[in-house]
Structures are given as C-alpha cells and as structure tokens.
Amino acid sequence: MKKRTFITVFIVLHLLFIALQIHKQSMFIKGSYEKQRLELEREQLRLRKQELEQQLAELRNPDTVKQFALNTLEMKPVQRKQIKKLAI
Description:
Elements: H1 2-60, H2 62-71
C-alpha cells in the first residue's frame, strides 16, 4: 500500500513539474512578444518625435514666421513713418 501511494505521489509531482515547466515557457514566450511589441512602439515613437522636432524647427524659422504673418494674418511690413522714437 505504501509503495502504491509513493508511486502515485511521485507521478503527481512529476506531472505538476511538467505543468509548471510549460507555464514557465509560455510566460517566457509571452514576455518575449510583449518586449517585441514595446520595442516596435518605441521605434514608432522615436520616428514621430523626429518628425515633430523637424516641424518645430520649420515653424521657428524666421522666414516661415514672416510668410505666415504676411499671408495668413495679412500683416504688412513696417514702414519708416510708423516707427516713433520715445524720449526717456
């Protein structure tokens, strides 16, 4: 009877170890896919950041600001007669 109980416990423990090994392997694969997804997202965000930095540099360009002021805001260049000197 003891021998039969020992064999049963032995088999159950081995099945448990096999199940834990499969679980560990599946968690490793899941983590690997998650890492791959995050690296892809990081690369996309890096490219988006570069695009936004390039747009910002273009918008900070004085010539672009001048064109925006003239075309969109319909401003006109300053004339000499519009400049007034303040006495301090």
